[in-house]
Amino acid sequence: MARHIPYEENHREINGFLEKKCSKHDIYFPDEDSWFLCTEEYFYKNKSSSRDGLNTWCKKCSSKKAYESIMSDYERFQKNRKKYMQTDKFKKWRIKNEEEYREWNKQWRIDNKEYLYQYAKEREKHKKHKISSKEWNECKKYFNHRCAYCGLALEDHYIMFKGELIPSDFHKEHVYHFGKNDLSNCVPACRNCNSYKWEFEFEDWYKKQPFFTEERYNKILEWINKDYMKYIK
User: Fold this and answer.
1) Of 90, 97, 161, 203, which one is least surrounded by beta carbons within 10 A?
2) Which residues are within 8 A (CB) of 3 and not within 5 positions of it... i.e. 6 or more apart?
3) If the chain, 233 residues long, is cut into consecutive pieces of 10 residues, what is the mean pLDDT of each piece?
4) Is 154 exposed, middle or buried (0-12, 13-18, 19+ CB in 10 A)?
């Protein structure tokens, strides 16, 4: 059970300004001063706190703790996040508080810039396919050098780079977002399909697309269920 910290122990007044001591700063950032102005600029609000209405941890320590929690079980975090964002409760709140949500999201990204960068690096490492160039070429050949989802030909695949459209290879797409990083979960996808599919479940997302075809759907299933095995090392 956490020790109750007396008000006088983590609050002080300096030159007429009330300051508060972050209870975790000495642990996470021992070389920094752990005292901050007792305001929402440095601490998140906490309605359950009857003493000052703020968290006991500063925003910087709260961000670090959140990052550690996310990365300790990234897949669970993403599943829970996606599940919550699909609830009626969140959708109704988002519609009713759109401006508040945008401002909160913008400020949160500013406050957590360092950890978002680290998070993105870890996420990219986690989601990078481990396949050889030969396996990738065979994968594209299997799908006739077309996007497995929409059927766009590779020679027609361009991306915008420094204001100009340039030819680009397909993306090594994860059919199942939380699936393996090998050939059994990889299909070629154009930039648009890769971006729009994002973390959505393959079947749910693909069957709702205007370019959906049973032929391409079955071909993807045949590839990830058995045919990929013909090309692995």
Assistant:
1) 161
2) none
3) 71 92 90 91 82 87 80 74 78 78 74 67 65 94 97 92 87 85 92 84 88 96 93 78
4) middle
Helix/strand/coil for 149: coil
Length of the chain: 233
∠ CA 179-94-173, nearest 5°, is: 20
Question: 165 vs 147, 155, 210, CA distance in Å?
Answer: 18, 13, 25
> 123: which residues sit within 8 A by CB, 6+ positions away?
74
What is the amino acid identity at position 116? L
Give the helix ranges, DSSP H, for 164-213. Answer: 191-197, 202-206
Cβ atoms within 10 Å of 168's Cβ, excluding its own: 14
Q: What H or E segment, with its residue span, contains residue 165?
A: strand 164-167
Q: What is the pLDDT of residue 119?
A: 61
- The rounded distance, in Å, linking the Cα atoms of 110 and 189 is 32
Judged by DSSP in three states, 209 sits in coil
202, two tokens: 């393959």
Neighbours of 220 (CB within 10 A): 18
3-state secondary structure of 39: coil
Whole-number Å distance between alpha carbons of 128 and 131: 9
Among 192, 197, 133, residue whose Cα is nearest residue 158: 192
23 secondary structure, DSSP code: S
- Calculate Rg over the CA atoms of the chain: 24
Beta bridge partners of 150: none
| Residue whose pair of structure tokens reads 């957590």 in the numeric block | 112
Write down the pLDDT at residue 115.
Answer: 65
Whether this prediction's pTM lies above 0.70 is answered by no
